[in-house]
Each structure stands twice: as structure tokens, then as C-alpha cells.
Design goal:
This protein is an alpha/beta fold. It contains 7 helices and 11 strands.
């Protein structure tokens, strides 16, 4: 299995303070993996290091889709991020724009220009997340679960190899959270690698997958 993420002996710092030490793990193509740990244990910092929002401080190896994070140049960061779909807990949708406008904004920002191709891609990702008929809606007209589906659709626009989901069910009721986790597992079965940070250990039991845990400034694998 080809490694999409590979870290060996990585250190991650925030504000000159060591958050994680000696992090070593890999995630393969089409693999679903949970990232768990207490608040402040380093989950978000680890995820952010993968799309170069938090720099990798040191390490033997830190690669995401063949990008070397230890020597990554600023001009390479946009290209790295185009291959990563990011799903946020707090949605981060533009509240003054419709679903269609939110998605077309991202496409234009990542180099798309043909209107017909953009329309087709938006329709495709909305179908993927079961929101085909919601493109005209404003975010405030959608439920929390529907908004999170739109966020996942946004993450899929450039057909990323890797999806990073940071507490995607944190603001949702339990039943809606289950539908979102089910959707993320389905995306992994379609070939996307998915790393999902969560504090909800019940989801890990109900939808089994590999579990990585941030604990005592280290990353360990639960068995």
C-alpha cells in the first residue's frame, strides 16, 4: 500500500513550545484512521502540520503525498493543499453566499475557470454527499448536518487523495454525527485516505478503524 502520509521521529512545536515529540506513523491510500486524544493533546497541531499551517520542527522524515514538509518552500504550499480536503468542526462557510457560491469560490481560487466544468464538478460533489438539490440554499437555511455535508463537498472539489477531518461531528447531535462518519468511511472505500480527529470514542467502537492516540506529547497506536 502506497503511503500518503509518512512521519518518522517528527517534532511539532507551537509558539516555541513542544506539542508532540518523536511522532512516527504512516497512512496508506484509501485508509481510514481515527486520531484521538484529550483537548490540548496535539491532535489539531498534527493535522495542521500536514497542510503546512503548523511547521514541522524537526524529524527524520515528514512527507505528505511526496511533499517533503522538512524542506517545503512557501510557493509549494498551495499545490500541497490542493491535494488535501479539509473538513472543519465549525464549517467555515461564507454566510453571505449560497452553497453554489461557496463551492464556486473555492474552484476559482484553485485555478478553475470554465463555467460548465465548474457547474459539473459542483453537481458531482453535491451528489456525492447527498445534497444535489441544496445548491441554492444559504448556509443559515441548512441544518448542522447539512452544513457539514456541504463542507465535505467543498473538501472533495479538487478530488483530493487525502481528507483531514478535525472533529467533524463535534457540533452535531449523535444521530447526525453518525451519518457524517458513515459518509467519511464511504469516501475511504472510494480511495480517499481519511484521517479523522475526534474525542467521541463511541464512534471509534461503532465504526471500527485504526486508532492513533495523542498522549503525553507522543503518538501511539491503539490496538
Amino acid at each position: 500500500m502506497t503511503a500518503i502520509i509518512e512521519y518518522k521521529g517528527v517534532e511539532i512545536h507551537r509558539a516555541e513550545k513542544k506539542v508532540l515529540n518523536n511522532v512516527s506513523f504512516s497512512i496508506g491510500e484509501g485508509e481510514f484512521c481515527y486520531l484521538v486524544g484529550r483537548v490540548g493533546s496535539g491532535k489539531s497541531s498534527l493535522l495542521k502540520s500536514m497542510y503546512a499551517e503548523v511547521p514541522v520542527y524537526a524529524g527524520e522524515k515528514a512527507e505528505v503525498m511526496d511533499y517533503d514538509l522538512l524542506s517545503l518552500k512557501r510557493k509549494q504550499i498551495p499545490y500541497l493543499r490542493r491535494n488535501i480536503g479539509i473538513v472543519f468542526q465549525d464549517f467555515q462557510l461564507l454566510q453571505d453566499r449560497s452553497v453554489y457560491e461557496n463551492l464556486s469560490f473555492v474552484l476559482r481560487a484553485t485555478g478553475w475557470s470554465d463555467r460548465n466544468e465548474m457547474d459539473q464538478r459542483i453537481e458531482d460533489v453535491l451528489i456525492d454527499v447527498g445534497m444535489k438539490h441544496k445548491s441554492y440554499k444559504m448556509p443559515h437555511e441548512l441544518s448542522g448536518g447539512e452544513q457539514q455535508r456541504i463542507v465535505i463537498a467543498r473538501a472533495l472539489l479538487n478530488n483530493p487523495k487525502l481528507i483531514l477531518a478535525d472533529e467533524p461531528t463535534g457540533n452535531l447531535d449523535p444521530q447526525t454525527g453518525i451519518t457524517i462518519v458513515t459518509l467519511l468511511h464511504e469516501l475511504a472505500s472510494c480511495g480517499h485516505s481519511v484521517l479523522m480527529a475526534t474525542h467521541n470514542l463511541q464512534l471509534c467502537e461503532d465504526f471500527p478503524a485504526r486508532v492513533l492516540r495523542c498522549r503525553d506529547k507522543e503518538l501511539v497506536e491503539d490496538y
